[in-house]
């Protein structure tokens, strides 16, 4: 079993994707999930490009990771600058990350036409930067940018670049197929040449999917001797995206006799795929390999009867091995056993309620068909389970709310002068409370009104803070009357939790998610 | 230049995709388009499976195709039945299609466990069916089902099956990677073995994408000697889909020195991709190789300056060669030249206003920092430019609006009982209009009120329809007070356009995007 190391670039290359913007909290939650999945290296981004990235490296240092190493990303020192005087390298060291990845040029024309310096200076920049970072006690990956185009144009120079990195002590030299144009047979041949030229040097591979071959190119590199694979969850990335690290891992583990995260963790594959997509405010494409909802679904007339008699003929892998399910069952919670396990992780013992499990599964299925998604809404799921078990006691009940948004005059497109006011009428036990809250937006106003109404009864609400608010329009092509899904993340001093609300009305969807977030928080607090 | 024949299975295997259902007219329009594109064979479906397919073959016989041949799809004769007595083969002949494709089993266990007959009988079914159809003067493709799994399990039997088809006169033997589990190196090795075993026999390849390698597997087969490639437009198909015929064609033409449709027709690639997707009521995925909207889009901070100096380093192919365009995401309209070009594409001549270009760029930059994104909001960008040029005349001005959302009682999480009502006060020239609209949600209510207020003055508003409504929360980790970005897509009979609004208040952001969508539509309509 060849051990192949996994290097995730979702937080850096993935975030380059059109349509993806991750908050600091998003990034930290993705780190947590990838660590639990068993990824070896998680690239966090540029440690000094903006306040969010600086804060990321501060926060992530305090996280108790059980397996993964965080990598800070940057470039070799600048031309004409010694590594000890280079601000970029200082930022990498200052990030506190145990691993650093520096990108350097290996295509002669990139050096002379884009970087505007000499080939010798480029070699110096690589050699001295790697040596400097190694001397700081860091694990160093050298990302050989445009390596395959560079090798085709000038093999001697491209090899000289990676040899410089190798001799300077780079722990891994990751060959980057930067513009995504190479095909598997080219990648395999070139990686083999490098492996022969640098015996004993760990090599890695970083591919983009512009020719539709990113996964195959990555596998071809492994066949030729690479033992580190870079990629992003679901293949997110700029242009057509990066190699999908999840598909690569599944192919390596299930078809090429390699070990990446191990068979046990591999069952998290579909969950990781869905979690990261949801955190990016995207969906996993239905037809995504291994993790898509249709990946193990069958409808072909030709096959229907054959599947029953000979399932292995129509499943290239067991769906359970990657945490997916055969046929139309969309959710991670498709099977009773996994629902029981999920419930246990929320502190709810479903095993003692075997008779109710099917009804709960049916309810989840109906809700998911209506637009709910429980992948990132543990709080709402826990409340749903408690309702089915008769263990749910509402802390308050709504009589009515009214939200008013007032706006005056056109004051230009950057205007922030609209005011929102929410009045809610709430019952706690036999008491009735009326409270009004204001906010910059209608949901903030509702949140303020609700807290004001119940704070006397439930002071724990003051410990809770809304930290994330996501809106997704489902069936977007029906315009403003489409179904809206709102996902809210709330935290108190000990944990954070997600809740979900769905409605044709964006305010009502927000309210439902808000109520769940407070209810679940109060339940957790024992209120 | 090796000539590689293209065989499209969109109308048969593509229609197996979850979510795709094509009408007869849809199918005929796709045939017409694929024929113009230069595809060699178009598989039409089973000629007798249902009335729609029967009608298809009748109708398509009457179409004046300039290049493509239609193929009818079916199976070998049934076990124990002579070909001349087999209804399926009779239907194929009766379809009037000049080519027929018959699928047959080549995996020993499929024969004994699924088909429930002997290996010898399976060989007879293949041999006699091919010979029978050849005797009718048809071009015959033999689809060797499960060939790669079959070969791995019992190479002698798998080879005996394709040898039987070859000796009976099959024009092409297309090796099918039916369950999608094989990897490129396996495909290449096995196809090479078959090519050596059957010298002079045309071979084809049919792949599915379950391992994320369908395109690469297809290219590997071509390297090993296959000269016919099967696939579907955009890779549509059951489970995770088939090999994307378009990506395969582009890779073969641009990277492997082969000819499929020729360089001239290759420029239709993006158009074909969009046409077929739209006909299937789907969109081309933004990140699709070659034909997606992001396939040649750039925004990475690392690359921005390099692209300008050395474009070939970040484009693996010329976008024009496949009918796509390079796209600088507007955040990179940092340069005056690209802003002028973008304006020209919107029909606005900035070149005549050199003095204002810098102020416009500064404004765009400030707005993008505040949360605006013009990547998908050409309508708002055009209005912004017109405002700077003094060419913008507002069609109406807002005095005020008030939106009220009322909700009563907790009626469960699937409740849709909230009502929204919007009242707006608007001035058109010197007249004041007050109008109230209702809606399932607050934005729908505002939209209805606005249309009601201005319809008498601007009847063109009735031609416009909101078709898409997206909400993104920026800086999500500040909770419900975060900045909200709303992007709306609107269309009239001739075009569609995007507009964007940003505010701390989700209703105000929606209003701003809504106003831009109507203003731009009226400007386009000359109102």
From TrEMBL, chains A, B:
<dbReference type="InterPro" id="IPR000891">
    <property type="entry name" value="PYR_CT"/>
</dbReference>
<dbReference type="Pfam" id="PF08502">
    <property type="entry name" value="LeuA_dimer"/>
</dbReference>
<dbReference type="Pfam" id="PF00682">
    <property type="entry name" value="HMGL-like"/>
</dbReference>
<dbReference type="GO" id="GO:0009098">
    <property type="term" value="P:L-leucine biosynthetic process"/>
</dbReference>
<dbReference type="InterPro" id="IPR013709">
    <property type="entry name" value="2-isopropylmalate_synth_dimer"/>
</dbReference>
<dbReference type="InterPro" id="IPR013785">
    <property type="entry name" value="Aldolase_TIM"/>
</dbReference>
<comment type="pathway">
    <text>Amino-acid biosynthesis; L-isoleucine biosynthesis; 2-oxobutanoate from pyruvate: step 1/3.</text>
</comment>
<dbReference type="GO" id="GO:0043714">
    <property type="term" value="F:(R)-citramalate synthase activity"/>
</dbReference>
<dbReference type="InterPro" id="IPR036230">
    <property type="entry name" value="LeuA_allosteric_dom_sf"/>
</dbReference>
<protein>
    <recommendedName>
        <fullName>Citramalate synthase</fullName>
        <ecNumber>2.3.3.21</ecNumber>
    </recommendedName>
</protein>
<dbReference type="GO" id="GO:0003852">
    <property type="term" value="F:2-isopropylmalate synthase activity"/>
</dbReference>
<dbReference type="Pfam" id="PF22617">
    <property type="entry name" value="HCS_D2"/>
</dbReference>
<dbReference type="InterPro" id="IPR002034">
    <property type="entry name" value="AIPM/Hcit_synth_CS"/>
</dbReference>
<dbReference type="GO" id="GO:0009097">
    <property type="term" value="P:isoleucine biosynthetic process"/>
</dbReference>
<dbReference type="InterPro" id="IPR054691">
    <property type="entry name" value="LeuA/HCS_post-cat"/>
</dbReference>
<keyword id="KW-0100">Branched-chain amino acid biosynthesis</keyword>
<feature type="domain" description="Pyruvate carboxyltransferase">
    <location>
        <begin position="4"/>
        <end position="267"/>
    </location>
</feature>
<keyword id="KW-0028">Amino-acid biosynthesis</keyword>
<keyword id="KW-0808">Transferase</keyword>
<comment type="similarity">
    <text>Belongs to the alpha-IPM synthase/homocitrate synthase family.</text>
</comment>
<keyword id="KW-0412">Isoleucine biosynthesis</keyword>
<dbReference type="InterPro" id="IPR005675">
    <property type="entry name" value="Citramal_synthase"/>
</dbReference>
């Amino acid at each position: 079993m060849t051990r192949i190391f996994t290097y995730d670039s979702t937080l850096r290359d993935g975030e380059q994707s059109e349509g993806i913007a991750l908050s600091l909290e998003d990034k930290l939650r993705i780190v947590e999930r990838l660590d639990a999945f068993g990824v070896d290296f998680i690239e966090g981004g540029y440690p000094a490009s903006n306040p969010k990235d600086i804060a990321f490296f501060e926060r992530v240092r305090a996280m108790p990771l059980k397996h993964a190493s965080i990598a800070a990303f940057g470039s070799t020192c600048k031309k004409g600058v010694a590594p000890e005087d280079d601000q970029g390298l200082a930022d990498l060291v200052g990030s506190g990350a145990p691993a650093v990845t520096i990108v350097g040029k290996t295509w002669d024309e990139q050096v002379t036409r884009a970087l505007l310096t000499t080939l010798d200076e480029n070699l110096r920049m690589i050699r001295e930067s790697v040596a400097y970072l190694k001397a700081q006690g860091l694990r160093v990956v050298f990302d050989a940018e445009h390596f395959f185009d560079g090798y085709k144009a000038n093999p001697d120079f491209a090899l000289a670049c990676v040899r410089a990195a190798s001799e300077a002590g780079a722990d891994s030299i990751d060959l980057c197929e930067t513009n995504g144009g190479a095909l598997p047979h080219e990648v395999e041949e070139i990686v083999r040449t490098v492996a022969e030229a640098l015996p004993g040097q760990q090599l890695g591979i970083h591919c983009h999917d512009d020719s539709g071959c990113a996964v195959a190119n990555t596998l071809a590199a492994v066949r030729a001797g690479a033992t580190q694979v870079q990629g992003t969850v679901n293949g997110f990335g700029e242009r057509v995206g990066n190699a999908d690290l999840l598909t690569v891992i599944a192919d390596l583990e299930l078809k090429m006799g390699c070990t990446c995260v191990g068979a046990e963790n591999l069952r998290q594959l579909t969950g990781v795929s869905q979690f990261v997509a949801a955190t990016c405010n995207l969906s996993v494409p239905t037809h995504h390999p291994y993790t898509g909802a249709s990946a193990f679904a069958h409808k072909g007339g030709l096959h229907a009867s054959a599947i029953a008699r000979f399932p292995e003929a129509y499943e290239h892998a067991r769906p359970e091995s990657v945490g997916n399910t055969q046929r139309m069952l969309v959710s991670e919670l498709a099977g009773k056993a996994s629902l029981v396990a999920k419930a246990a992780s929320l502190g709810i013992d479903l095993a003692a309620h075997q008779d109710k499990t099917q009804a709960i599964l049916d309810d989840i299925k109906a809700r998911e068909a209506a637009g709910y998604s429980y992948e990132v809404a543990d709080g709402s799921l826990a409340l749903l389970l408690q309702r089915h078990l008769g263990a749910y006691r509402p802390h308050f009940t709504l009589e009515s709310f009214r939200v008013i948004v007032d706006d005056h005059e056109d004051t230009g497109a950057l205007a922030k002068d609209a005011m929102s006011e929410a009045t809610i009428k709430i019952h706690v036990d036999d008491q009735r409370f009326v409270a009004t809250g204001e906010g910059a937006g209608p949901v903030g106003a509702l949140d303020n009104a609700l807290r004001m109404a119940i704070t006397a009864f439930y002071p724990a609400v003051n410990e809770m803070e809304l930290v994330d608010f996501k809106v997704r329009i489902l069936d977007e092509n029906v315009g403003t009357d489409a179904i809206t899904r709102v996902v809210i993340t709330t935290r108190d001093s000990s944990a954070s939790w997600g809740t979900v609300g769905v409605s044709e009305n964006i305010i009502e969807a927000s309210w439902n998610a808000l109520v769940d977030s407070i209810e679940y928080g109060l339940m957790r607090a024992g209120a």
